[in-house]
Amino acid sequence: MYSYIEGELKSVTEDYIVIDISGIGYEIWCPNPLRFQTKIEEIVKVYTYFYVREDTQMLYGFKLSEEKDLFKKLLNVSGIGPKNALSIVSQTSVQDFAKAIEQENDAYLTKFPGVGKKTARQMILDLKGKVDEWMQVKSDDLLTIETEITPSNHHLYDEAVEALLTLGYTKRELDKIAPQLKAHQSNSTDDLVKHGLQLLMR
Fold first, then answer.
1. Where is this region: Domain III (predicted)?
2. What is the pTM of this model?
3. Could you point out which of 28, 54, 103, 127 has its C-alpha 20 to 30 Å from the C-alpha of 161?
4. Rg (CA), the chain
């Protein structure tokens, strides 16, 4: 229904963002909403998917159009609901996910919360051959995917620091917790920010 929404970013929470368009605030649930933290009061474009069921209506949003496409494909897999799909999108890139599907890498897929071997096999069955357009290498030159979901820790750390600076903490305060924050094993910016806040409050 909504291909994308473009408007002024008013607020960011741990679960969703609010975008204002002509005085109407759209609550949009996102993977890693804190990725938008530095854009508050700026115009942002979010690729959206309107999820409608008898008992619920939710608007989901994504920074990249391919993340939205992955979310939609995951919803078509038996046993995967919007909460699981959003969690998966928040923890991997579409390229790495596509490689895991094409390589039938159960070990990678079962690292996602709520995904057991049965669901992993179902994802492979339903999606193999349907996500290969996201792969950036030829099928006969596939890279081996690590069994741990480990997005660039450096990238996550930088995003977490930006978010904490936006929340009002100083660089001096963040420098004090930097070693502990960098050492914290995390798969999302949100988790790193939460851990950072815990360290700062000690």
1. 154-202
2. 0.68
3. 28
4. 18
